[in-house]
Amino acid sequence: MTEKITAADAIRLLDSGKAVAVDVREPDEYAVGHIPGAKLLPLGQVIDRAAEVLPDKNALWLVYCRTGRRSADAVQKLESLGYTNLRDLGGILSWPYEIEGDFEGHF
């Protein structure tokens, strides 16, 4: 069972370069706003593209989506592919820190 991670713990790991955020929303959602430096891996592409987008199966990946439903699903899929160091960050709607994007749409 993958651990959940709080935004406060996540930002410390991201800022120190010890983890990378993974956004499993769709490209249009990512464009509106995402955690700075996050890699885009839409949920529907996790099985086919994980090795390309997330090459290190032992790196610390912080998986998030909009509300937390897709991130939990993505974490299960990544675990089935052999990823060993995942944290479910939940939804970007509860992310209190900086977000980058065009902000023209809505989450």
Task: Supply database-style keywords.
4 helices; globular; about 110 residues; five-stranded parallel beta sheet; alpha/beta; Oxidized Rhodanese, domain 1
Record the SSE blueprint.
Blueprint: E1 3-4, H1 7-15, E2 20-23, H2 27-32, E3 39-40, H3 46-53, E4 61-65, H4 69-80, E5 86-91
Parallel strand pairs: 1-5, 2-3, 2-4, 4-5
Question: What would you say this structure looks like, in words?
Answer:
This protein has 107 residues and is α/β, with parallel strands linked by helices. The chain has a single domain, classed as Rhodanese-like domain (Oxidized Rhodanese, domain 1). Strands 1-5-4-2-3 form a 5-stranded parallel sheet, sandwiched between helices. β4, α4 and β5 form a beta-alpha-beta unit. The longest helix has 12 residues.
Quick structural gist:
The protein is an alpha/beta fold. It contains four helices and five strands.
- Total DSSP E strands: 5
CATH class identity: Alpha Beta
**In which order are the strands of the major sheet placed?**
1-5-4-2-3
Helix share, percent: 25-40%
